[in-house]
TrEMBL record, chain A:
Functional note: Part of the ABC transporter complex MalEFGK involved in maltose/maltodextrin import. Probably responsible for the translocation of the substrate across the membrane.
Organism classification: Bacteria, Pseudomonadati, Pseudomonadota, Alphaproteobacteria, Hyphomicrobiales
Assigned keywords, A-Z: Cell membrane, Membrane, Sugar transport, Transmembrane, Transmembrane helix, Transport
TM ranges: 71-93, 105-129, 135-154, 183-204, 238-258
Subcellular location(s) of the protein: Cell membrane
InterPro entries linked: BP-dep_ABC_trans_perm, MetI-like, MetI-like_sf
Gene Ontology CC: one annotated term: plasma membrane
Keyword Transmembrane helix: yes
GO biological process: transmembrane transport
Record's keyword annotation contains Nucleotidyltransferase: no
Protein name: Maltose/maltodextrin transport system permease protein MalG
Family designation: Belongs to the binding-protein-dependent transport system permease family. MalFG subfamily.
PROSITE patterns (alphabetical): ABC_TM1
TrEMBL record, chain B:
GO biological process, any: transmembrane transport
Primary localization: membrane
A GO cellular component annotation in the UniProt record: plasma membrane
Regions that span the bilayer: 7-29, 71-92, 104-125, 158-179, 212-232, 263-284
Keywords linked to the UniProt accession: Cell membrane, Membrane, Transmembrane, Transmembrane helix, Transport
Signal sequence annotation: none
Organism lineage string: Bacteria, Pseudomonadati, Pseudomonadota, Alphaproteobacteria, Hyphomicrobiales
Protein name as it appears in the record: Sn-glycerol-3-phosphate transport system permease protein UgpA
Keyword Transmembrane: yes
ABC transmembrane type-1 domain location: 67-281
């Protein structure tokens, strides 16, 4: 069988699958560009592309503020995660110490625990601390829930960086900290960037903690804001909601398409060690 | 002499341990206290409850109904994903024109947050000319609008389908990693021995893929069992709790119905179930390592 023939057959088999995986994007895109009067029409294409939907949704959905909140919380969460996870990943990849396995087990459990199981407890703790509805607290929680994954991912990359350079630096008399900062970190930069992107996307998409712990609309992140527009209203402007959903999703989709080849390492690294 | 730096590994892991530890343990302690307290509708502790909350939870018929649905939901999504992911991964592992594009197209749903996917689903499955109804009518498969989300019989299968769409990319990624780890010379040897395609698949590919399938199944079981956004953002477990799974029921108990003590008990039960899943996972992962 020629390669061309084989390619055709494989594409034929995959087409129904793509119909399913692309359906959400199809729905978002085809609704977002319809003029308001044609949203419910049975037609393959609208009579014109209603680009004004994207302008209108900005205010109608409250997109701007929610976008700013999502950006702020996700950026802060990413920074906090890196501050926590880089030293831990470095320790796991460079040192053998008592409790190392215990620490790994603990990370695994923290990874398996979805926030939903803890959300009532977290809510109570934040009530006690008078820290409900605080974007910074939510960012800190995101950092905590992202730590395990970030540490595994960083460790698996760090372990591929040879130690010779660090040893040379120690022998020259540089301190451990200076060596880590000046010799190791520059080499680890690609891994750190990928981990940062992951954490960012995870925080960007997080739902249950944001839904529960952010109590007023001025603090809502994008998913919560869009859900608030959709639920509890008699009539929903779906063309605007889909325009907003598309704008909230596309940047992440593009990032993902690019990052997907890096994903497996972090996903399986924690698993098999 | 062993050359080493003067950094202390315990200091390096301390921030991670501290932040994650507090975020997990403090809420757990709270949940434990709540579960044995008498808590009023507004979430205030008004006295000792003893085992009362535990008794109430286990006497609640909704617990069993939503546990059963959790089982169907988890099995449906995990097995459905597995059945789709295996052939897809095998196809994507072949050499063919446009493989890079095909891989991205399969991975794309990963990029949509579950909440956003559910909101899209809510519109697509809308009873008044939602996208699916319009598509089906334009293709002349159905004649009238179907209110997919208004009844559990149609809503729940659709939610499972959304769950499969969301779980597929992760699973395919794991399987592709597994397939690429199988050395090609085994296949060449089998070919020399005269084995046909089906034989090589059954005798080589499947057994070597086993550990990856196991890990994907356990991980997916944990994620799907915990998955809250799809059901919450499509139906909120409704109509009349008929699409509730444990996590959505737990959320309603805690934040809608004001039955905080019972919600704490249910959280602890789910914590124990997850711990058991995790132990199974660690066992499997360790087996694979040896």
């Amino acid at each position: 069988m020629s390669k061309l023939m084989k390619s055709l057959l494989i594409w034929l088999f995959l087409l129904p699958i793509f119909a399913i995986t692309l359906f959400p994007f199809y729905v978002m895109a085809t609704t977002a560009i319809r003029p308001q009067t044609e949203v419910f029409d049975q037609s393959w294409l609208p009579t014109r592309f209603a680009w004004e939907n994207f302008v209108e949704m900005w205010t109608a959905v409250g997109f701007g503020r929610a976008l700013a909140n999502s950006l702020y919380i996700s950026t802060l969460a990413t920074a906090l995660t890196l501050i926590i996870a880089i030293p831990a990943g470095y320790a796991l990849s460079r040192y053998r110490f008592a409790g190392r396995t215990g620490f790994r087990r603990f990370l695994l459990i923290s990874q398996m625990l979805s926030p939903i199981v803890l959300v009532l407890g977290l809510f109570r703790v934040l009530v006690l601390l008078n820290a409900l509805n605080d974007a910074h607290v939510v960012a800190l929680l995101y950092a905590g829930f992202n730590t395990a994954f970030a540490v595994w991912m960083l460790e698996s990359y760090f372990s591929t960086i040879p130690r010779d350079l660090e040893m040379a630096s120690w022998m020259e008399g540089a301190s451990g900290f200076t060596t880590a900062r000046k010799v190791f970190l520059p080499l680890a930069m690609p891994a750190i960037c990928v981990t940062a992107l992951f954490t960012f996307v995870n925080s960007w998409n997080e739902f249950v903690l944001a839904l529960t712990l952010l109590r007023s609309e001025e603090n809502y992140t994008l998913p919560i804001q869009i859900l608030a527009i959709v639920s509890g209203r008699f009539s929903v402007d779906w063309h605007l909601v889909m325009a907003a959903a598309l704008c909230a999703t596309l940047p992440v989709a593009i990032l993902f398409a690019w990052m997907q080849r890096y994903m497996l390492r972090g996903l399986t690294a924690g698993a098999v060690k | 002499m062993r050359i080493s730096s003067n950094l202390n590994p315990y200091l390096l892991i301390a921030p991670g341990l501290l932040v994650t530890g507090i975020i997990i343990l403090w809420p757990l302690v709270q949940l434990g206290q709540l579960s044995v307290s008498e808590v009023n509708r507004f979430g205030q502790v008004i006295g000792q409850g003893g085992a009362e909350n535990y008794v109430k939870v286990f006497a609640d018929p909704e617990l069993y109904a939503s546990s059963f649905r959790t089982l169907i939901w988890t099995l449906g999504v995990v097995l459905g994903t597995l059945l789709l992911a295996l052939p897809i991964s095998l196809a994507l592992n072949e050499e063919f024109y446009g493989r890079g594009v095909a891989r991205v197209l399969v991975m794309l749903p990963w990029a949509i947050s579950l909440a956003m996917l559910a909101i899209v689903g809510r519109w697509a499955l809308n009873g008044d000319s939602g996208t699916l109804n319009n598509l089906l009518q334009m293709l002349e498969i159905t004649q009238t609008d179907i209110a997919w989300l208004a009844r559990a019989e149609t809503a729940f299968p659709m939610q499972i389908l959304l769950g499969i769409v969301a779980t597929l990319p992760f699973t395919v990624t794991i399987f592709l990693g597994g397939l690429s780890s199988i050395p090609t010379d085994i296949y060449e040897a089998a070919q020399v021995e005269g084995a046909n395609k089906l034989q090589t698949f059954r005798r080589i590919t499947l057994p070597l893929m086993r550990p990856f399938v196991n890990i994907a199944v356990v991980l997916n079981t944990i994620y799907v069992f915990n998955s809250f956004p799809i059901i919450w953002a499509t139906t909120q477990g409704g109509p009349a709790n008929s699409t509730d799974i444990l996590v959505t029921y737990l959320y309603k108990l805690a934040f809608r119905f004001g039955r905080v003590g019972e919600a704490a008990v249910l959280s602890l039960i789910m914590f124990v179930i997850l711990l058991i899943f995790t132990i199974i996972y660690v066992r499997l992962a360790m087996n694979e390592e040896n």
